[in-house]
């Protein structure tokens, strides 16, 4: 161990990972090196898998699905594996948190909290594995009985992004497994470690070989090949709207595989004059700064009632100045590093555009000076108009744009003035206003007088160009099933041809 960051040892040599097919580790020939975004030390080496590796992973998942080693088990046995995995995650919590920090740059305290959420995902999905069922139709007349069966879709391809490498994985994997499907996962190239670590934990928990397979590599090569692969029955993709669109084309041009898409957002936070302004400002600061704003549900558009706008922005700016940005291994840090150099450039580019387009910078707006690592102070722009690029485009960084409104209808129009519909939040002590806004703003997830609350019991997903389908909760398991309608004749069928 050559270096320490806040008492945590940085790896002396990068940890080398193979990839995981049919219950076995394979060695990569061509390797990708990942530097920690906070410490500029090479932390991992992962394989750049080839199309042949992908074919083998899909074939293993297909065998494991077709011979029913997983789908054929009682739900209770699948639940047992998921519960033992949850226990395994408890044992490996510190290890997983450390690799999330080293590859992603998020604060260690946040990483630990995310793993607790992942444990809850496995426990919730275990319950769902036991309860998953179809329906029956006792109303078809005395001669006919009907029922619906829920059957697993088959082999699922899962592509995940770099912002929540383990959390997004665990909001999908246990629910896919609960349904009886098998899968091939392709994590983001820069944050593959924890997806690979999960392979061993699942195997220790008793998951049969071939059910969970991991291939690593870039999106353009191995990711694209997975979206086009005719051996995949369903693709679950989480990432940008642009790549989501290319998944739709790939599905159409290959085998019309079913798609689950969780894509981008430009999420409104609507603050009425009658809200608890201190509370709402804390929520707004958290909503834009959590995970350095590299979060699909970041509340990046503040829509605040004009009569309190100046006061609210002052309170918010004061709070944002106090956010502790820095080394993610410092347990006091609230906001860590920007995960990739290109994302850092994108965010700084949008800050420059905001200034050039005439928005007023109230706080932040600069990279923080640091010996190593990329850090940006959470930033607030006021006087933003709907045509500005910081108003319309997903920045995926800690940059909040503030708009002002006079009437409830105007607030709703502003909130819906986007191609996205992922998440939204409204702050008001008036139940009529809060509920009207909740019902009229287009978003798959809504928070009233809170933000980013909730667990794996409730489904997540987007309206409009934020995606298709739902993850987590019972709907999140059903998403990976298909419904078969069955009709059973009771007694003698009346004949078509007379005898
Ligand atoms: P991205 O779309 O660039 O990459 C996501 C994943 O897709 C990665 O694994 C990447 O390797 C892969 N990929 C890239 N190009 C591909 C291609 N042509 N074919 C197949 N796979 C490809 O997104 P990102 O930069 O990693 O993540 C940021 C984006 O993800 C943001 O837009 C954010 O809003 C979105 N996101 C959405 C959610 C959600 O739940 N809605 C969650 C997290 C992130």
TrEMBL record:
Domain of life of the organism encoding this protein: Bacteria
The entry's keywords: Oxidoreductase
Keyword Hydrolase among record annotations: no
GO MF annotations in UniProt: oxidoreductase activity, acting on the aldehyde or oxo group of donors, NAD or NADP as acceptor
InterPro entries according to UniProt: Ald_DH/histidinol_DH (IPR016161), Ald_DH_C (IPR016163), Ald_DH_CS_GLU (IPR029510), Ald_DH_N (IPR016162), Aldehyde_DH_dom (IPR015590)
Residue ranges of domain Aldehyde dehydrogenase in the record: 26-486
Residues of the active site: 262
Pfam families assigned: Aldedh
Protein family according to the UniProt entry: Belongs to the aldehyde dehydrogenase family.
Record-given protein name: Aldehyde dehydrogenase family protein
Annotated organism of origin: Gluconacetobacter tumulisoli
């Amino acid at each position: 161990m050559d270096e320490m960051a806040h008492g945590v040892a940085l790896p002396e040599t990068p940890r080398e990972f193979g990839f995981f097919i049919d219950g076995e580790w394979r060695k990569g020939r061509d390797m990708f090196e990942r530097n920690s975004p906070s410490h500029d030390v090479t932390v991992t080496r992962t394989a750049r898998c080839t199309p042949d590796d992908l074919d083998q992973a899909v074939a293993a998942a297909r065998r494991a699905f077709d011979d029913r080693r997983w789908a054929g088990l009682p739900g209770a046995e699948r639940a047992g594996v998921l519960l033992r995995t949850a226990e395994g995650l408890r044992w490996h919590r510190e290890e997983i948190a450390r690799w999330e920090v080293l590859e992603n740059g998020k604060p260690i305290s946040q990483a630990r909290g995310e793993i607790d959420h992942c444990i809850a995902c496995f426990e919730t999905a275990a319950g769902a594995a036991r309860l998953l069922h179809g329906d029956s139709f006792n109303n078809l007349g005395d001669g006919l009985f009907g029922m619906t069966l829920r059957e697993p879709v088959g082999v699922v391809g899962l592509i995940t992004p770099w912002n929540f490498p383990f959390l997004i994985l665990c909001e999908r994997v246990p629910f896919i497994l609960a349904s009886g499907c098998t899968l091939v996962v392709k994590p983001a190239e820069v944050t593959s470690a924890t997806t690979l670590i999960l392979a061993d934990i699942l195997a220790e928990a008793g998951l049969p070989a071939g059910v969970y397979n991991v291939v690593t590599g870039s999106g353009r090569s191995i990711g694209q090949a997975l979206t086009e692969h005719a051996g995949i029955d369903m693709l679950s993709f989480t990432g940008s709207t642009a790549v989501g669109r290319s998944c739709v084309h790939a599905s159409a041009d290959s085998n019309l595989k079913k798609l689950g898409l969780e894509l981008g957002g430009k999420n409104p936070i609507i603050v009425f004059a009658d809200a608890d302004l201190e509370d709402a400002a804390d929520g707004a600061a958290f909503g834009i700064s959590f995970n350095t704003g590299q979060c699909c549900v970041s509340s990046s558009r503040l829509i605040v009632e004009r009569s309190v706008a100046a006061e609210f922005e002052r309170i918010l700016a004061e709070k944002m100045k106090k956010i502790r940005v820095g080394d993610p291994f410092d347990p006091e840090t609230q906001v860590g590093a920007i995960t990739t150099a290109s994302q850092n450039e994108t965010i700084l580019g949008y800050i420059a555009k905001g200034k050039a387009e005439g928005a007023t910078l109230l706080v932040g707006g600069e990279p923080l000076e640091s010996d190593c690592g990329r850090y940006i102070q959470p930033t607030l722009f006021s006087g933003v108009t709907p045509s500005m690029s910081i108003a319309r485009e997903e920045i995926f960084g800690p940059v909040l744009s503030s708009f002002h409104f006079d009437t409830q209808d105007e607030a709703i129009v502003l909130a819906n003035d986007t191609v996205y519909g992922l998440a939204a939040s409204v702050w008001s002590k008036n139940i009529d206003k809060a509920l009207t806004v909740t019902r009229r703003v287009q978003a798959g997830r809504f928070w009233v007088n809170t933000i980013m609350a909730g667990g794996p019991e409730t489904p997540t997903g987007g309206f409009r160009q934020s995606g298709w389908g739902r993850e987590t909760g019972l709907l999140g398991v059903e998403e990976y099933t298909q419904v078969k309608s069955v009709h059973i004749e009771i007694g003698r069928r009346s004949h078509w041809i007379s005898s």
